[in-house]
Amino acid sequence: MNAFMPAAAVQQQFDDAPQQKEAAVLGMWAFIATEVLFFGVLFAAYVTCRWRFPLAFVEGSSQLDFPMGTAETAILLTSGCLSAIALRQIQLNKARQSAVLLLVTSLLGVAFLVLHGMEYHDEFKEGLIPGIRYLETGPSAHEMELFFSLYYVTTGFHSLHVLIGVVLLLIMALRTWRGAFCAQYHTPIEITGLYWSLVDVVWIFVYPAFYLVGNAG
Amino acid sequence: MTQQEIPTLRSQLLVLGGLLILLALSAGLSRVPLGWWVLVITASVAVSQALLVMVVFMRLKSGHPALRIIAMLAFAWPLILVALTLGDYFTRSLLHAALH
């Protein structure tokens, strides 16, 4: 513990700050494992459906906004890098830089949500939402409902995770700006960065699964 | 756990550059009529990108070995789930033929 670190920051069940940090990071990774399992079930459903109805998935994927999906991926990858640099800067005791980077990361998260919301809006107008407004006809229309159902459930839960991440990043940016963290104590920033990277990793698999089916019959 | 080393800014930006190049590669090749190879290529790129993020941005490389074990297990269970589910689908016709 250092002079800048509040005594209450080390809970009584831990010997010292490094031990508390080890436990926090380990706990976060255990949480990440449960999240991977959650999305893993959705991917298992995706693999099964795609195996059974390959042409419907090609047709469904071709209806999605490929440039928008690619831009969203680039935004998330960049934001993941910025959150990692924010952690680096606080380790170097550059709190203000870290706070700004966390703020920019959260703004990129907001940009992702706005773009995805625009996609949902366009898809609603085109009648691609099963159970709400589905106007597809043709031989593969029924099987394509499976594709779009999986798409909305997976991307919907992912967007929920992005929204939670944006709120966490904003809180961290504010606390960092106010001087709550320093080189010796920055565990909450590290934990938030891990969460944001999880959001990143999930999207890395969502993007090719739904947007890049392309010619892979 | 030992004190974590602080990565250089250059290494972080290089990884971001690599991730964006992989994204361009994946997006570009998905437009080429390569059949099922598109799936192989895009899946391989996705695995590479995820590994880069986890090893560098999530600092698995410099983290405690227990974290790497948890990370591997986290992805092992869904893989087992997918393998067993597909195994069921692959063998249904065989079982059906054997029973009739």
Structural descriptors:
heterodimer, A: 217 residues, Four Helix Bundle (Hemerythrin (Met), subunit A), two-stranded antiparallel ribbon, B: 100 residues, mainly alpha, 2 domains
Plain-language structure description:
The complex is a heterodimer of chains A (217) and B (100). Chain A has 217 residues and is mainly alpha-helical. Chain A has one domain: Up-down Bundle (Four Helix Bundle (Hemerythrin (Met), subunit A)), CATH 1.20.120. Chain A has six helices and two strands. Chain A has helices spanning 17-52, 54-62, 66-91, 95-125, 141-177, 187-211, and strands at residues 128-129, 133-134. Chain A has a two-stranded antiparallel ribbon with strand order 1-2. Chain A is elongated, with a radius of gyration of 21 Å. By secondary structure, chain B is mainly alpha-helical. Chain B folds into two domains: 1-63; 64-100. Helix content of chain B is 78%, strand content 0%. Chain B has helices at residues 9-30, 37-57, 65-99. The interface between A and B is large, with 50 and 52 residues.
Number of strands of chain B: 0
Name given to the CATH architecture of chain A: Up-down Bundle
Please give the radius of gyration of chain A in angstroms.
Answer: 21 Å
What's the alpha carbon Rg of chain B, rounded to whole Å? 19 Å
The total number of structural domains of chain B is 2
Q: What structural class do you assign from the helix and strand content of chain A?
A: mainly alpha
Write the layout of secondary structure elements.
The complex is a heterodimer of chains A (217) and B (100).
Chain A: H1 17-52, H2 54-62, H3 66-91, H4 95-125, E1 128-129, E2 133-134, H5 141-177, H6 187-211
Antiparallel strand pairs in A: 1-2
Chain B: H1 9-30, H2 37-57, H3 65-99
Helix pairs in contact in B: 1-2
